[in-house]
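Q: Sequence in, structure out?
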Amino acid sequence: MKILLHMCCAPCAIYPLRVLRSEGYDVMGFFYNRNIHPYQECLRREQALKGYAEDIDLEVIYQEGYNMEEFLQNVVFREKQRCNYCYHDRLKSTVTIARHGKFDYFTSTLLQSKFQNHELIRSIGEGLGKSYGVPFLYQDFRHGWEEGIETSKHLDMYRQQYCGCIYSEKERFFKNH
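A: Exactly. Output:
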């Protein structure tokens, strides 16, 4: 069974990849993160993933370009609902490639994080799966949260400190004095 795995970063991919491969899936990765700010952060995450993918013999499709403006245009004045747009954009791009590539399923490493809204991701993924004819595979990968952290540290892998968008960067680092 072929599965396309949307990948937000290398550390969050460690556990889902191990689980999916152990379950017999033929996994291909897809790095698509137009929301990442600043651009250098996006490049750091991409480079970390390229190194990890090479080490574990994983084929990955990488997004072309960097269209952060589209993300911002779609969330401005709706910042509290920005994750809805972000999840939809990432999963729609993933299922589009999955359908074109004749994958049996698609899923996301976003399901590794205890900070993401799993019910919303699942709802969007399942809806897109029905629309595009490629089922969304929901698995709660949060059980491997610590494993991913420890393994990424052991591998001296770049580990980001926030989800990715300019708003999450502010929430992580700005302290209202």
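The CA atoms of residues 3 and 9 lie 17 Å apart.
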